[in-house]
Design brief:
- The longest helix has 27 residues.
- This protein is globular.
- It has a single domain, classed as ABC transporter involved in vitamin B12 uptake, BtuC, CATH 1.10.3470.
- By secondary structure, the chain is mainly alpha-helical.
- The two termini are about 20 Å apart.
- Strand 5 and strand 6 form a beta hairpin.
- It has 16 helices and six strands.
- The protein has a two-stranded antiparallel sheet with strand order 1-4. It has a two-stranded antiparallel sheet with strand order 2-3.
- About 65% of the residues lie in helices and about 5% in strands.
């Protein structure tokens, strides 16, 4: 009996290793050459897709430069801060996507980790700034603080995972919602004089921003009075957040394609079946909370430094709902969907307000104020329409496991006839032990 169990575990581990690498595996012994590896990619990309990708990348990197220079304002266009918040929301949503999209657990308390990261960053600034001032490592203060804030949030995520291991569905959602409110109320009550109560903390100016002074002194282009390009705080933080977002995308994508990611997928589909197949569900849940919380804390640190101050009101329940809506509307389990959802959910209200305040000058102040205040109502209407016509989100998660195409014979002689079917049910879902 023991030999049979060990053989089954070794076979499952071998299958997973081969599937993650995109190599042929035991599935071909079942389905023949009609089985395509789980993460195998089609190397051929259409010229249209390549062109759209290039245009998108150029827009992401060059649009902020135009918004900064147009109008001749030292701080750039009012839309530029909105781009920074879109990036922060995308990082926060990527962490939530690990918990909801990959692991299949509902979380309504995401802003708690955002707040923990922001306050942890503010609290460590005096100590770290005093140690690194006038040293060659002064430029590393910001990356160290962001990593520290992420680790503190991860620790909080681990603590939260301990009491919720046996909870599912609505019960888990209620516990995470309560955790988010508990964190906000604790910060508001200023325990030990650390959080500043309702006044918050304001210490972001005490660290040296990497290369910011050099960029302001050397990047300057003024071909006209209406077009002056100089690095502002908004432009600087946009590229800092963009760099962190790129790192988050790469790391989260690799986690999804790892053995731990397969454990999350199995747990998401059927927790009981995953346990029966050897998946350590407790370990998978813990890692989901820890890794998802890290990106919430890192984004919170950037938010605190960008704003210059943090207060408990910034981390209320409504903002947690907005982050959740970003993942659901974009597409749970889809990285590109989360990015698109962040642009729509966070960017649409700011765009509506900007249009109302800058292009309705003849309509009168009352109409401007009305449209600006109704931006969240219009956003809610957009979400309702999305849930009616695109129930899986704008960009649904792509199916993994194996795809069948054409007609072929398996080793046992049974025919397999499928043009675009999947065999996710037949693929083993075993994972980490």
């Amino acid at each position: 009996m023991t030999d049979t169990t060990n053989t089954s575990k070794n076979t499952t581990a071998t299958f997973e290793d081969q599937a993650v690498k995109g190599e042929a595996s035991s599935a071909e012994a079942i389905f023949g050459k009609t089985a395509k590896p789980m993460f195998g990619r089609d190397r051929k990309k259409s010229p249209l897709k390549i062109g759209l990708t290039v245009i998108l990348l150029l827009t992401v990197f060059l649009l902020p430069l135009y918004l900064q220079a147009a109008g001749g304002s030292p701080l750039g266009s009012p839309l530029l801060p909105g781009l920074v918040f879109i990036g922060l929301s995308a990082i926060l949503a990527l962490g939530l996507n690990i918990i909801i999209g990959y692991a299949g657990m509902l979380d309504f308390g995401r802003m708690a980790f955002y707040a923990i990261g922001a306050y942890a960053a503010m609290l460590i600034v005096p100590t770290l700034a005093g140690v690194l001032t006038d040293t060659p490592f002064a430029q590393l203060a910001l990356p160290i603080i962001v990593i520290f804030a992420g680790l503190v949030a991860s620790f909080a995520g681990w603590l939260l995972s301990l009491p919720v291991m046996r909870l599912r569905g609505d019960y888990l959602a209620i516990v995470t919602l309560a955790f988010g409110e508990i964190v906000r109320l604790v910060l508001s009550n200023n325990p030990g004089g650390l959080t500043g109560g309702m006044s918050g903390l304001s210490r972001a100016h005490m660290i040296e921003l990497p290369f910011f002074a050099w960029l302001r002194a050397n990047v300057y282009w003024a071909p006209s009075n209406d077009f002056i390009l100089q690095v502002s705080t908004n432009l600087y933080w946009y590229y800092v957040v963009l760099f962190l977002l790129i790192i988050a995308i790469v790391v989260v994508r690799n986690q999804d394609h790892s053995r731990l990611g397969r454990s999350w997928a199995a747990m998401r589909e059927d927790e009981v079946a995953a346990t029966a197949m050897g998946v350590n569900v407790t370990r998978a849940k813990t890692w989901a909370f820890v890794l998802g919380s890290f990106w919430g804390g890192a984004a919170g640190a950037c938010f605190g430094f960008y704003m210059g101050t943090v207060t408990p009101e910034s981390f209320n329940f409504f903002n947690s709902v907005v982050v959740l809506a970003t993942v659901v509307v974009g597409g749970m389990g889809s990285i590109s969907g989360v990015l698109l959802g962040s642009v729509l959910i966070v960017g649409s209200p700011e765009l509506i307000r900007w249009l109302a305040m800058n292009h309705l000058g003849q309509a009168g102040g009352e109409l401007q104020s009305l449209i600006a205040n109704l931006r969240n109502l219009l956003l809610g209407l957009l979400m309702v329409l999305m849930m009616i016509f695109r129930t899986e989100g704008l960009i649904p998660m792509k199916p993994k496991f194996y795809k069948l195409y054409g007609k072929s014979k398996s080793n046992e002689g049974d025919s397999v006839d499928s043009d675009a079917g999947t065999v996710a049910e037949a693929a083993p879902k075993g994972g980490a032990n």
